[in-house]
Records
---
Amino acid sequence: MFLTNLTWPAVASLNRDIPVVFPVAALEQHGRHMPVFTDSLLTDELIRRVESRVGDRVLFAPLTWLGNSHHHMDFPGTLSAEPRVYIDLLNGLLENFIAHGFKRLVIINGHGGNDVPGRQSVFETRQKHRDRKDLLLLFATYWNLGAEPWKRDPTIQQRVMGHACEWETSMVLRIRPELVGDLTKTVDVPFGNAFDPAVRGWTMPDRSEPGHVGDPRGATAEKGEVLFSCFADEVVKLLARVGAWDGKSWEG
Ligand SMILES: [Zn+2]
């Protein structure tokens, strides 16, 4: 169920063990062929599909579209919160619902740059409520939940998420094809290994002139449907685990 459709008495009457989802995404450049609102469009669609399957068992807050996208700031149009501001924004959302008495709070993320501050947010908020044993604070990026879409469609080439890549371009083609530019004009931008196993601080111009990473030329709406379906399955599974948690153990 969507929080935006409820009255406050309806929220007040909810079981406080219901999982509450905060979807988060971004508004940032997505190459020359895709709109800046790509991550938010895709995350909204994913959440819409998940909500239609879990119904009243999960409460969904509206999408927070402002993300941490400073590594894209060289490209006009990008709107980004400073990392510290973004962590505090997420902490604030969690604190609001802790104040309302809810205990199982899940941030579902659809933008790579939110990953580090998102993890930091659930960590910080947990430390602030360290005497509570009944809090479950989770951060999850939807494409990192174990989906293997290439097993359902062997024509899918990529194995991990890129940026405005085969995967994201396919998903936008599935829901908003009129927003996708001429893919024959795009090029393959290799992922590279970024000094693995070290973690490199980077900006997008370090990696890509057009702004995308990956090869969008193989994108199709059919692949997009498979990707949405696989990612929704994993989010539904995660939320079922959250709902089934016994309220105190480390792993439920
Ligand atoms: Zn994206």
Note: The longest strand covers residues 19-24.
---
Amino acid sequence: MKIRIEKAACVGNARCAAIAPGLYPLDDDGYIASEGFDVPTGEEALAQRGARACPERIISIVEEDG
Ligand code: SF4
């Protein structure tokens, strides 16, 4: 499972980081510092919760085929 983030559209309200600070790091200005990542095994639910917490809907979950 992967996460994709439309970094340029982030408004910096830190909802994602409040849920999962280890997965959704913020830069010094409080905006998301990542454009996406491979979700570590066992952290899928946390990653999903963080994605759902984004009111801008710029965090998407990419399920891999096969
Ligand atoms: S929740 Fe969405 S808009 Fe808010 S900091 Fe995270 S990525 Fe940016």
Note: Residues 5, 10-16, 24, 32, 53-54, 56, 58-59 surround iron/sulfur cluster (CB under 6 Å).
